[in-house]
């Protein structure tokens, strides 16, 4: 005999817990099924252990989806200010970093504790180390067989996440369940992920590991200004993680190495003020020295960068400026789901209600959070989608 609830939530991550506590506060009997040994495992590792729990500027423009309008309803009805009010109600100290990113002052574990305290107060039951073995549709709803017995409910919420960071238990379970009930699943790939280099590009830059500089990364009409970091395998840093969600292998990726600076104007000014200085010396003053040296060795060698600036013609300075403002970075791929912060693609939003996240095909079935084809930028946007989509479904159960 299956134990009965009003709603079963598969997945105890950010979206699942928000959904559960929201439904519990409305008097619903909710059971969260989490296959890991504890809930919210990915929350503590975010933001360097401080949890970038939302972004004050979160809007639909900060999300990628085959249907860019889908996220509007949920985001409008549960805002960053709503979540911040919850954080403050629990006395969690926070601070704002760059670009509207909000972090805990002390520890991201406080966010997990807050969600668990809210769930407990709302009477939500949580089963950890509980793997789902089978899901069946019945006349009265859903019957779910797990490693801890069978449970039934008229509503089933899939909050099982994407494929990112499999070491934390990520799997394709939610996609398989979606297909089981007739939903289309759009192709998935790693997003917010470091890029890898190979061949001569790797050889030229490999020993720069640890060197960082501000850049503006551009690809496919998108651009992000932030830091880039050279790694043993390629490039990372916020600007690269951001642009990785827009980049596909073979696409043109350009970096402005002097963001916010007019490169030609700067070079001409240096030519007037320091005519005897060598180009490589001037570039080493504008960029990290080792990286400037590499640019001179491999990209500017035909121009003889060891010459004094006074010997460079205006067309040559223009050529140098063009390289500095649109340096071609030829990436070979990404580091994949192993280090990706989000999974792009997922359950096709065409089959879901944007207001409730309920399936249009199967009444009582919901998909929320990362399993859905809605992916945010770096900087707290994916957490905000988790809170907003979880709240939308929890309010409808």
Automatic annotation (TrEMBL):
Native species: Cognatiluteimonas weifangensis
Record-linked InterPro entries: BaiN-like (IPR004792), BaiN-like_dom_sf (IPR023166), FAD/NAD-bd_sf (IPR036188), RsdA/BaiN/AoA(So)-like_dom (IPR055178), RsdA/BaiN/AoA(So)_Rossmann (IPR057661)
Family annotation (SUPFAM superfamilies): FAD/NAD(P)-binding domain, HI0933 insert domain-like
Domain RsdA/BaiN/AoA(So)-like insert: 189-342
Protein name: NAD(P)/FAD-dependent oxidoreductase
Requisite cofactors: FAD
Name of a matching Pfam family: HI0933_like_1st
UniProt KW keywords: FAD, Flavoprotein
RsdA/BaiN/AoA(So)-like Rossmann fold-like domain location: 6-395
